[in-house]
Amino acid sequence: xxxxxxxxxxAMPSFEQLGLPDHLLATLAEVGYETxxxxxxxxxxxxxxxxxxxxxxxxxxxxxxxxxxxxxxxxDLASKEPQALVLTPTRELALQVSEAFTRYARHLRNFHVLPxxxxxxxxxxxxxxxxxxxxxxxxxxxxxxxxxxxxxxxDALSMLVxxxxxxxxRMGFIDDVEWILEHTPSTRQTALxxxxxxxxxxxxxxxxxxxxxxxxxxxxxxxxxxIRQRYWLVRGVDKLDALxxxxxxxxxxxxxxxxxxxxxxxEELADKLAARGYAAAALNGDMTQGLRERVIEQLKNGSLxxxxxxxxxxRGIDVPRISHVINYDIPYDTEAxxxxxxxxxxxxxxxxxxxxxxxxxxxxxxxxxxxxxxPIEPIALPSREDVSxxxxxxxxxxxxxxxxxxxxxxxFFMNVVEEIVEENDLxxxxxxxxxxxxxxVGRPLQIEEEEGRGWEQATVxxxxxxxxxxxxxxxxxxxxxxxxxxxxxTDAVPEKVFASGKTQRxxxxxxxxxxxxxxxxxxxxxxxxxxxGKLIGQIDLFNDFSTVELPALxxxxxxTLKRIVVCNRPxxxxxxxxxxxxxxxxxxxxVDSRRDDRSHKAAAKxxxxxxxxKQVQEKRGGREKWISRSSGESRPSRKNAVQQGGRSFTNHxxxxxxxxxxx
Length: 663
Ligand code: AMP
Hints:
Blueprint: E1 3-5, H1 22-31, H2 38-48, E2 53-56, H3 63-74, E3 84-87, H4 91-104, E4 113-116, H5 122-131, E5 135-138, H6 140-149, E6 159-162, H7 165-170, H8 174-182, E7 189-194, H9 199-208, E8 213-216, E9 227-233, H10 239-249, E10 255-259, H11 263-275, E11 280-283, H12 289-301, E12 306-309, H13 311-314, E13 322-327, H14 334-341, E14 351-357, H15 362-372, E15 377-378, H16 384-404, H17 410-424, H18 428-440, H19 453-457, E16 503-508, H20 518-528, E17 539-541, E18 546-551, H21 555-563, E19 565-566, E20 569-570, E21 574-575, H22 590-597, H23 606-619, E22 643-644, E23 647-648, H24 656-662
Parallel strand pairs: 1-8, 2-7, 2-8, 3-5, 3-6, 4-5, 6-7, 9-14, 9-15, 10-12, 10-13, 11-12, 13-14
Antiparallel strand pairs: 16-18, 16-21, 17-18, 19-20, 22-23
Bound molecules: adenosine monophosphate.
Adenosine monophosphate binds at residues 33, 36-37, 40, 59-65, 261-262.
């Protein structure tokens, strides 16, 4: 008999109430999770009790922790045999899920998780499998290969999760999935998660799950009058940059409530906003009641304009001047969304809700539109130039307002300016310019690209902290049973081809505007070009192209790489001429220069950067979100080591006086 829970419990239980052990409670507190998400609240007790489960849940609902936490509770860490298997449709998801396991298992000794996916070197995988792991996370094709070779044995397997089952169906893997299910002990516990439950998935559930508990979060429809809903598809520009542009350019923005998922996330984002000159503070469940009340009072009286909050902490806030709710992290479900946006449009005023949606979260966007019975309009981000000219006109207005302020006593200040002019043989325009410069430090009038953004993205996820070797960024292709092959793998180019040792910078015709990430570039070149990941050097992303450093390529290989398609565009790879014009660079602010000074420890490779960031993360008490300290990642020996992501690293803070002398 199937049981169905169609609504989340009205009062969300705590993680303690769900019956999780202390070490996991400690981890969850460290990663900043305040309360279980609805899908977690509903699934964890069933999975801890050993029931099979059919969960209708999409990306972003917190489903990974919903199955990973109970698995971690039930593992026997004295044995290194695979006890849990998670099947995912893609390599990316396999890596994400195994990272989540590692994160949640940080207080568990002897825990091992292994991602197994097509395109990765068989030799490496065989070695890793021989070492043993309690949890295997993999794509169906490669798992089948190992089962057939006998390199993977499921005799001790007691838990199996099918993640994004409808995606596996869509991609043609469902036969493979059933074949794997048939080759695991029938005594296992099985959980199937799927964003939708079409008949074929129900069929799999019917054949392979035993009296599953059915968990579904059904969207209740609600009308949200007086709130204009909009969304921005996260692409090209990073979220912080997008947020600041929106905060600057939105008309009628009085105060904004920005929602993120974790307590740590509230602090980090509020700090970053404050550092950029916004009156911002965090609001989360770790703060005392008194402190929280103070933040809300400051928001009411206008001493704060932006509050970055978690769902729990913002519950019930009633501040009429909140004109905007910004969903920086997408909510877990439509109910949470409706609660969030209900913080604006109060006391008869109009409100604006803006949702940041990653391409993978589009399904949640559709659910929200359905639940609120209103279309959500896409927004175009204001350009840097728009934001700069807005800031300049606001600045001019501020100067005029200051001149009109009766408290200013201009005589005294005019005397000070006069003294500077006379003592230094300067013009008053020069002094005025210096003063204008001083005022805008921290909130520059000329907006620049975020520091080191390319490299934040360039963190190539790899659980062993090693370079990705011939990783496939395409999913496993469906395969014929019994046939042993490795479809997505191009034979690796022998290293001797690159024996000259020369490197060359190449230009490829995909850039940030096309939504590319360094990881995709590495994946395409390594997998489809057959060039080992360790030979791929620095990648710089620009708006409409990127550059990548590679060993000098023979023309045949270059022709192959030219044709590879990434983000629906051929790479059209060609050597990059160092004299080729790069996108215009602008002077940088003093704040930026200071940031550069901190970051001279250049990492030659993204994975080295990742390892270092991990250390930083661990030093800071194991925070969930990695802190990027990087900016000047270029190798010092390179001629273009001063360029990063289309930006100049020249120091523009030379003193005013000195510059005059130079003239
Ligand atoms: P998922 O739907 O599993 O892909 O999770 C989406 C995101 O939500 C991940 O970044 C998780 O770290 C985060 N997350 C999952 N559960 C919670 C929670 N209870 N509180 C805060 N963040 C969470």
